[in-house]
TrEMBL record, chain A:
Name under which the protein is recorded: NADH-quinone oxidoreductase subunit K
Location of this chain's protein in the cell: Cell membrane; Membrane
Entry coiled-coil feature ranges: none
Enzyme class: translocase
A molecular function (GO) term: quinone binding
Superkingdom of origin organism: Bacteria
Principal location listed in the UniProt entry: membrane
Keyword hit for Protein transport: no
Keyword hit for Protein biosynthesis: no
Species per Swiss-Prot/TrEMBL record: Flavobacterium agri
Lineage: Bacteria, Pseudomonadati, Bacteroidota, Flavobacteriia, Flavobacteriales
Enzyme Commission no: 7.1.1.-
Membrane topology designation: Multi-pass membrane protein
Automatic annotation (TrEMBL), chain B:
Domain of life: Bacteria
Membrane topology qualifier: Multi-pass membrane protein
A Pfam family hit: Proton_antipo_M
Transmembrane residue ranges: 61-79, 91-111, 117-137, 149-170, 190-213, 225-243, 255-274, 286-305, 311-332, 353-375, 387-408, 428-450
Naturally occurring in which organism (per UniProt): Flavobacterium agri
Described purpose of this protein according to its UniProt entry: NDH-1 shuttles electrons from NADH, via FMN and iron-sulfur (Fe-S) centers, to quinones in the respiratory chain. The immediate electron acceptor for the enzyme in this species is believed to be a menaquinone. Couples the redox reaction to proton translocation (for every two electrons transferred, four hydrogen ions are translocated across the cytoplasmic membrane), and thus conserves the redox energy in a proton gradient.
GO molecular function annotation: NADH dehydrogenase (quinone) (non-electrogenic) activity; NADH dehydrogenase (ubiquinone) activity; quinone binding
Protein name: NADH-quinone oxidoreductase subunit N
Family: Belongs to the complex I subunit 2 family.
Cellular component per GO, a single term: endomembrane system
Length: 106, 456
């Protein structure tokens, strides 16, 4: 495994993860469908998880991989809450387009 | 560590009370149990322990801030009995979520490892998403929950990326080891990018300009008690955690970073105050007031080696005044559809005690003497001048003067206008919480050195 990392180089892992993370960020900023926004947040978190594993191998240290478990558990809890909010919005409004959420302004 | 265990235990017990059909007992039990936890926490004062391989480190900083959070939670739980009277069947959920939120908050100030910090911030945030969206038939609450969820998890992603880059640079999550490594070796540039991303994420959570845009909407739409949690407890927690992160990881903050903090701080004060002037909704106004107070609290980061006591003092003064103000707002807007300022008309004649409490709370936030808010600002400003940031203090003083304008808008509505409706009976808990928090506020105003010297 360390051999593969040496051949590819840690920088390339960082670039890949930054690109994935940016795709997630742009998804959150530009997409209007709540489910797709959630998916974009997941892409952001998973890009970071990938980088954690790469760094963990790079440093020959298991802590990074353990952290991935923490962050996966947290992401699952977060999405569970988010989907519950989406369901209650859908019941009230009949749509999950976040452009419809315009009641609060000032 | 004992604090964290005790708090989690109380949360689980709250859920069990639901099964045993003891809903009436939940609020009194929780208040008493939290008072006990406060005692356990304070008994750790003056000692330094680390638990579970440095995951949790208790020292004077964490003990003092944990005690403040527990006091705030006691007030918030005491208010929830009346607030959730229409949905009493679910009260154990609401109370236990607040308790778990407190567990996250305590983890955020007593972490010794970045993974514990991340877990703490997520436990706190996820509990708040639930609380913000907890009126599920009310579209405004749904919208607030959705906006807070999107912004919050976006910020969490950025924080996680920051932690990841710091790990990549250092090869460890332990704060102690990171702090030793920052002094010695040549650092990869990832480390600094990581610090910047972590800062951005924390500024999101504190709601400082330019990452403040979610705050007014979320504060307005959430149920009023949740707004009270956000504007008092969460803001203070996020600020304390940010302070601890920066002191733990690189105490020698570079000049460029200080410039960024200065600009963010001045921008938060100015934008918060100027936007607050034109608000008609009391909750929205307090949201902008919270943004400007975040700016004030960020000033402590300019003098980071010695300002922990000042941060604790400012945070206590602000949060206790906030609790008192929200106790009155909760009563006034009990059965109202909105929280506009005209609801407060004539409160000075119909409910003189509550009007006095709200006036005192607002005067403390504005920084008028005898209340703790004044001494907090005084300590903060004199410390910042000593550190050599005169421009910063001039901007802060001008902003304090502007802030008097919108606080008095509410005070004038209470005393000069006539009430349009009949007074209803006031549950005694509003008096108790409001008067008690204002009394603590005045008490720490009379003995500022006691609080400031808690963290040396």
């Amino acid at each position: 495994m360390g051999n593969v990392l040496n051949q590819i180089g840690i920088e390339n892992y960082i670039f890949l993860c930054v690109i994935l993370f940016s795709i997630g960020v742009f998804g959150v900023l530009y997409r209007r469908n709540a489910i797709i926004v959630f998916m974009s947040i997941e892409i952001m978190l998973n890009a970071v998880n990938l980088l954690f594993v790469a760094f963990s191998t790079y440093h020959q240290d298991a802590q990074g991989q353990v952290f991935v478990f923490f962050s996966m558990a947290v992401a699952a809890a977060e999405v569970a809450v988010g989907l519950a909010i989406v369901v209650s919005i859908f019941r009230n409004l009949g749509s999950i387009d976040i452009d419809n959420l315009k009641n609060l302004k000032g | 560590m004992n604090t964290l265990l005790a708090i989690t235990g109380i949360g689980v017990l709250c859920l069990l009370f639901e099964i045993a059909n003891l809903r009436k007992a939940i609020v009194p039990f929780t208040v008493v149990a939290l008072l006990g936890t406060l005692g356990i926490t304070l008994s750790d004062y003056g000692t330094v322990h680390s638990h579970y391989n440095n995951m949790i480190v208790t020292n004077n900083f964490s003990v003092s801030f944990s005690a403040l959070f527990i006091v705030l939670t006691i007030f918030l739980v005491a208010l929830s009995g009346d607030f959730y009277r229409k949905t009493e069947a679910k009260i154990s959920d609401f109370v236990s979520i607040k308790i778990f939120l407190l567990a996250g908050a305590v983890a955020m100030v007593s972490f010794g490892n970045l993974s514990m910090f991340f877990l703490g911030i997520e436990v706190l945030s996820i509990s708040l998403y639930i609380l913000a969206a907890s009126q599920r038939l009310n579209i405004r609450s749904n919208e607030a929950g959705m906006k807070y969820f999107l912004m919050g998890s976006f910020a969490s992603g950025i924080i996680l990326f920051g932690i990841c880059l710091i790990y990549g640079a250092m090869g460890t999550f332990d704060i102690q080891e990171i702090s030793e490594l920052t002094g010695s070796a040549e650092l990869p540039e990832w480390f600094f990018i990581g610090i910047v991303l972590l800062t951005i994420g924390m500024l999101f959570k504190i709601a400082a300009v330019p990452f403040h845009f979610w705050a007014p909407d979320v504060y307005e739409g959430s149920p009023t008690l949740t707004t009270a949690v956000m504007s008092t407890l969460t803001k203070v927690v996020a600020m304390a955690a940010f302070y601890k992160l920066l002191t733990g990881m690189n105490a020698n903050i570079s000049y460029e970073y200080e410039m960024v903090i200065m600009v963010v701080s001045i921008a938060s004060m100015t934008v918060g105050n100027i936007m607050a002037l034109r608000q008609t909704n009391a909750k929205r106004m307090l949201a902008f007031s919270g943004i400007s107070h975040a700016g004030f609290m960020l000033m402590t980061l300019l003098n980071i080696t010695s300002s922990a006591g000042t941060l604790l003092y400012y945070a206590s003064a602000y949060a206790l005044a906030g609790i008192a103000a929200f106790a009155v707002i909760l009563y006034v807007c009990r059965d109202k559809e909105n929280e506009d300022i005209y609801n407060f008309n004539g409160l000075g004649k119909t409910r003189p005690v509550l009007a006095a409490v709200l006036t005192a709370a607002l005067l403390s936030m504005a920084g008028i003497p005898i209340f703790a808010g004044f001494f907090a600002k005084f300590a903060l400003f004199s410390q910042t001048i000593k550190a050599g940031y005169l421009v910063m203090v001039i901007a802060a003083v001008i902003n304090s003067i502007i802030s008097v304008g919108y606080y008095f808008k509410l005070i004038l509505a209470m005393y000069t206008k006539d009430s349009t409706e009949e007074a209803t009976k006031v549950p005694v808990v509003f008096y108790a919480v409001g008067v008690l928090s204002i009394l603590i506020n005045i008490a720490i105003g009379l003995y500022p050195s006691f609080v400031i010297n808690l963290i040396k």
